[in-house]
Structures are given as C-alpha cells and as structure tokens.
C-alpha cells in the first residue's frame, strides 16, 4: 500500500500549459511561364505555407518570395523542374518573383499573394504530426 502511494505521488505532479498548435501548413502550387508567375490560391490566411513552383520555361530561374516580413530565395530551378519554399507568412502582401542570370527582353510579371488574418490553430485536427 505504501509503495502505491509513493508511485501515485510521483505521477503528474507538474502541470503544463497546453499551447495551441500552429495552423495546418497549406500547400500552394505555382508555375513560371514566359510572361508571368502564377501561384494558387492567391488569397489565404496567415500561417505556415509550402509553395511548390514548376519552371515551365526554357531557361533556369531563381525564385524570390518577398514581402514585409521576409525575403527568401530558392533555385535556380532548371526548365521542367520544381522547387519548394516553406515559410510562415504574416498578414500582408507578398510577391513571388522569377529571376534569371541572363538578360531577358521582357520581365516576368510576379505573382502577388494576399495574406489575411491568422488561420485557426490545428488543435482539433486529427492525424497530424
């Protein structure tokens, strides 16, 4: 009986704060074309994102995600290849740009992402890591 009391006293003696988990990472897809970069969806709530971009041009391009809270670069991405940028985005406007090491006759128009207020946490979502 004394052993049971000692074992129970050692269990759960410390409380912990149950912190909210981050929102689920959203998967965005993008394409580099000769005249523009497109990313879908272009409007979403703040939180973690993974932007996978495919280069559908004949030249390698570097990718830049630029906004108020970040400047991230990836690449160069070979023609027909993909790359992914993972980032937690704050509310604001961001541009996804495609650059090239050689001069081009026409600049590739960037995609614009509009990030709104934070998405809800993922505390009640099951089967998450």
Structure commentary:
By secondary structure, the protein is mainly beta. The chain has one domain: Cupredoxins -  blue copper proteins (Immunoglobulin-like, Sandwich), CATH 2.60.40.420. It has one helix at residues 2-10, and strands at 26-32, 37-40, 43-55, 61-67, 70-77, 82-89, 92-99, 111-118. Strands 1, 2, 3, 4, 5, 6, 7 and 8 form an eight-stranded mixed sheet that branches. The model has no long low-confidence stretch (mean pLDDT 85).
What is the element layout, followed by pairings?
Elements: H1 2-10, E1 26-32, E2 37-40, E3 43-55, E4 61-67, E5 70-77, E6 82-89, E7 92-99, E8 111-118
Parallel strand pairs: 1-3, 3-8
Antiparallel strand pairs: 1-2, 3-6, 4-5, 4-7, 7-8
Short recap of the structure:
The chain is mainly beta and 129 residues long. It has one helix at 2-10, and strands at 26-32, 37-40, 43-55, 61-67, 70-77, 82-89, 92-99, 111-118.
